[in-house]
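I have been asked to look over a protein record a colleague put together. Alongside the sequence sits a line of tokens, each denoting a local backbone shape. I have pasted the whole thing underneath without changing anything:
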Amino acid sequence: MFKQPLLLSSILAIAIFFTSCAKDYTPSKKVLPTLLKSANECRNDSNKEFEIDCYDLIAYKNSIALLRLAVINYKKGNYKEAVEQLKYVYKEDNFYANSVMSDVLKQVGKSEADKKRVLSLLEEVKHVDPIAAYKLYYYYSSLKDYPEAIKLLTFAANNNVKEAQLELSKLYANDEENKIVKSDLALSLYWLKEANDSSKDFVYEIYGIKDYFK
């Protein structure tokens, strides 16, 4: 799909734009819950076409709705459309754009510079986006920076990222297979119970889909 050099270069150029400046997300934390509530009014599990049309209708004024459209395009492999939408989400200071953009860049970027941009996108928002924190857990684990790794994973788990909760449950259950945490059966069972609680799913709440990591 991405054999055209101009298409690839345009996506990478926007990726550079994403990582060109640091932002203060304090105001965003106040605004995003209202936008999220509005976007959730579009939910319609029995009629996804209606749901998408609803997002499309309000996307010009709601960056969560636009983010969900970008996620849909990303999952379909429509990377160019996803990136164009994410660019506007980012301009609205919606810090959830970074994590999805990092996944797009993983698909189209192959150089070491691209890999660094992926990390930079996640690092910028790891303290405000639990999904980004979950992804960075694996990076810090690979560096054997276990204190930072478990800090990020716990942040993600505490905010109901299901994949993070399952990972914590595994870690606490299998102390001999890892050096990150000491085994703790009670904590392992606690995080497993949290992971199985479908009423609290952060990825679904933000992205609007349940199978993002599949």
